[in-house]
Automatic annotation (TrEMBL):
This is Peptidase A1 domain-containing protein. One of its GO terms (cellular component) is lysosome. It comes from Diploscapter pachys. Belongs to the peptidase A1 family. PANTHER family: BETA-SITE APP-CLEAVING ENZYME, ISOFORM A-RELATED, PEPTIDASE A1 DOMAIN-CONTAINING PROTEIN. Pfam families: Asp. One of its GO terms (molecular function) is aspartic-type endopeptidase activity.
Length: 274
């Protein structure tokens, strides 16, 4: 998910486990704001107070995008489920229209300050499966990633400048296909593709994957050779290779996760998330 906020965990938080915590007293550029914030995360939430500081995109010692005067949310409470994640916070890369308290997201702030060569960013996610503490890909701010992206670049208008939302015209895999207009959002929060259960069931079945009701997951034999998943967006059809749909786990029965999940918006939001 391209979240719309950035939050750090306060050193005074009480439920944040062994997460790295932010000490604003150690920052010479931090300015206290004091406005409270509350952000829903599923059935739980995160909350705290706002501050203003200089944000740096990129790891220490690398070429960084430095964005002064950026609103940051200092969390004193985070969702219990967040304790299981390896990351220590959330960075917002989407639009002001869905920002809590209407704050300016950091990347929009960078664009407004003229810090980027182009008002865009590129995401490359490397195929790694289930792994921790490994190189997972690359974000390129202000330009196209020419090392990992093909030369042919296609643009699709957003249907909503909230999340990165666009229209999908159809999907197909093997013997199954459906031609219908759907709203979809691009998300980096998961390597899986979510959609209506009837469609994900049909796609999984065409691939030879089986639904696990207990885990709400799809499993497929790791030696299987399903067809590519085809997604039609605008005038173009994009192909997701099987290697990017099959994720090895610690399962001992040669079963891989098949990267689909049920996503039901109830008609109040996009039908697909990827």
């Amino acid at each position: 998910m391209h979240f719309v906020r950035i939050f750090n965990i306060s050193k005074f938080s009480t439920n944040c486990g062994d997460k790295q915590k932010f000490d604003n007293a150690s920052s010479s550029t931090f300015v206290h704001d004091g406005r409270p914030w509350n952000m829903p995360f599923g059935r739980d939430h995160a909350k705290g107070v706002q501050g203003n500081d200089t944000m740096r995109f990129g790891s220490e010692g690398s070429q960084q995008l430095v964005v002064p005067r950026t609103i940051v949310d200092i969390a004193d409470y985070i969702p219990k489920s967040f304790l299981n994640y390896k990351n220590d916070g959330v960075v917002g890369l989407a639009f002001t229209s869905i920002s809590v308290n209407g704050v300016l997201p950091p990347l929009i702030n960078a664009i407004n300050q003229g810090l980027l060569d182009q008002p865009l960013f590129t995401v490359y996610l490397e195929h790694r499966g289930l792994a921790d503490n490994v190189y997972g890909g690359l974000y390129t701010y202000g330009g196209i990633d020419t090392e990992n992206c093909a030369e042919d670049i296609a643009y699709q208008p957003l249907s909503s400048a909230s999340f990165y939302q666009f229209q999908v015209l159809g999907l197909a895999l093997g013997s199954y296909s459906i031609r219908r207009q759907y709203q979809a959002i691009s998300s980096t929060a998961s390597g899986f593709i979510g959609g209506p259960k009837t469609i994900t069931n049909a796609l999984a079945s065409a691939a030879g994957a089986k639904y696990d009701e207990d885990g709400d997951l799809y499993w497929i034999d790791c030696d299987a050779h399903p067809a590519e998943l085809e997604i039609t967006i605008g005038p173009n059809t994009y192909y997701v290779e099987p290697v990017n749909m099959m994720i090895r786990t610690n399962a001992t029965n040669n079963q891989c996760l098949f990267a689909l999940f049920e996503f039901e918006s109830g008609g109040f939001g996009p039908s697909w998330v990827s």
